[in-house]
Design a protein that fits this description.
Layout lengths: L22 H9 L31 H8 L7 H8 L13
Organism: Pristionchus fissidentatus
Protein name: ABC transporter domain-containing protein
């Protein structure tokens, strides 16, 4: 059963469900990657970020090395540590492989 719902700005939505229930199809429709037929022609304009369930790493380095490589001037700053690293508990992951 499908029910109408609302999305608000800056809201994070997680879709969970059994295999083959249409989660990926719905995301593809919302992102515009899959076009609907004429029956469903009106979709609201929104910015959507899709995060895949599994990510294939492009690097075999550690979190520390990746941060140093990608944002060398940012991650050592106290504000970045306070606003990002501490809330996400990244410090304890620094020596893990990416």
């Amino acid at each position: 059963q499908l029910r109408a719902g609302d999305f608000s700005d800056s809201e994070i939505i997680v879709m969970l469900g059994n295999n083959s229930t249409g989660k990926t199809t719905m995301i593809r429709i919302l992102t515009g990657a899959l076009k609907l037929d004429a029956t469903f022609s009106e979709l609201p304009q929104m910015s959507i970020s899709y995060k895949p369930q599994k990510i294939s790493p492009k690097s075999e380095s550690t979190v520390r090395h990746m941060l140093h490589e990608k944002i060398p001037n940012m991650y050592p700053h106290e504000q970045f540590k306070t606003g990002v690293m501490t809330p996400l508990m990244i410090e304890q992951l620094m020596d893990r492989e990416v």
